[in-house]
Write a structure and sequence with these properties.
The complex is a heterodimer.
Chain A: H1 5-14, H2 24-38, H3 73-77, E1 83-84, E2 87-88
Antiparallel strand pairs in A: 1-2
Chain B: H1 6-15, H2 20-38, E1 41-44, H3 46-61, E2 72-76, H4 103-110, E3 114-119, H5 153-160, E4 167-171, H6 177-183, E5 186-189, E6 209-214, H7 217-227, E7 257-261, H8 271-286, E8 290-294, H9 302-317, H10 336-347, H11 350-362, H12 369-389, E9 395-399, H13 415-419, H14 426-431, E10 435-443, E11 446-454, H15 459-472
Helix pairs in contact in B: 2-3, 5-6, 7-15, 9-11, 9-12
The chains are: A mainly alpha, B alpha/beta.
Chain lengths: 95, 484
Amino acid sequence: MSLDKSDVEKIAHLARLAINENDIPDYVRDLTNIFELVEQLSTADTSDILPMAHPLDANQRLRADEVTETNQRDLFQSIAPKTEAGVYLVPQVIE
Amino acid sequence: MHNKSLSELSTSLHNGEFSSVELTQHYLDRIAAHNSSLNAFITVTADSALEQARLADVRLQQKTAGTLTGIALAHKDIFCTQGIRTSCASKMLDNFIAPYNATVVEKLNAAGMVTLGKTNMDEFAMGSSNETSFYGVVKNPWDTDRVPGGSSGGSAAAMAARLAPIATGTDTGGSIRQPASLCNLTGLKPTYGRISRYGMIAFASSLDQAGPMANSAEDAALLLNEMAGFDPRDSTSVERDVPDYTASLTASLQGLRIGLPKEFFGEGLDPDVATTIEAAIKTYESLGATVKEISLPNSHLSVPTYYVVAPAECSSNLSRMDGVRFGHRCDDPKDLLDLYQRSRGEGFGEEVKRRIMIGTYALSAGYYDAYYLKAQQCRRLISDDFKQAFNDVDVIMGPTAPTTAFNLGEKNDDPVAMYLADIYTISTNLAGLPGMSIPAGFVNGLPVGLQIIGNYFDEARLLNVAHRYQQATDWHQQTPADFK
């Protein structure tokens, strides 16, 4: 398969990545090469093969519904880019 | 001091031949002398190291010390260390002071070990050459024009140059074993779930596993004893007793059944590396092992499977880096979308962006079945090959990497060529099996690693198999000339 410029722009948007206009040809080339490598998977017969989501086929462990974490908001917000009155600040989203 | 094994260091510390402060200072001096030529450390924590060493000396004097109390180590900068920058070698986390310790860090702190600093790595552990780090390339102490391997390249270079007596690494597709191979170290990736992933910054959650990078199997066993174990804070941690990994190190290899996958010795393997590996296998035969050729017929699917599964998981894991709660934020965002896009565009390097984009595409509407589901099915085929093989053999052996250390810059322009550096290590991660790399000789002065793959939770046997070889050979004791 071969990707083009608009594919790369769409993927970058989905991934919320700003990419340089000048770098797009490199992304087109590299991603196309990588997906060509991935195309080899289509040669494998996987009918009736269960997808493997976990190496040990383990199930999610359950635990008692008890509070185990304490509130560390001040500590966690001490490394945040921008906070005020205990909340994280981002550009205005509601007019 | 820096050529002693961990057990020798432990004996000296317990007998009072030198203190932990003296040992720590010795390594800090070596780091000061050599790090500028290697770039193995991102952060050196001299003050806190000496403070930890003083506390270790108190425990040693009070006779409350354990085997590893007072011994220094280096952590890959992927493990969260409370109060210390944890960058994952990314501009995104250049300002990230971890608010908590990874379980691995907590356990080794509790054992009384001394953290010398945080080692360089490929950005978010994505790379096989340690060239994708925001903090610059790491150089191989065996030849500083060459790469140390990756992604745990800083830990590998630090160990090879004897800037630390032991180090931690992580392995998602070969990131402990491949640099161990390129730097003449003993590296172990345990079974998935054996060591807690809590506080280890996630790359591909179904593949990531921490492990020791050491100068010998015995040293690796000592560190694994402390690193392994169930952790309720990691939902994929396995509830299973941890044996004493040193207990069976010296067991006889008489009758050990070694399988050699024919797919690991085919096209793409450097002929001199192949000769070196064959000589190592001969040594095993002289130690009483029997050898048979086996087949892992779906091996050729490993790299393509990995480059769907790992990027898919990374695109999901790295979505938490959005410039809101921690990490890099762009200047003057005009709206929320701009904040996300520019913070991530500026914070991530090229290889990380590439992998996020592969994963995003593979998981996007209309492509999920063709890529992710298909890859998960191929993953089971690869895993079933190993299950079949382990019906007839005890361990599988082959080369860790297809070549010795390559030149800096050699594969930078071709991501696919770089990905093939992990062709022999990736299948182990996909299956969740434990694997090791141990020094097996040299080609033109550059180290060659022998890979040993075991069945699930068979780390003790791997270490035994490695240790017996290291008693019969001295490859693992060779050190690079400029770092004696």
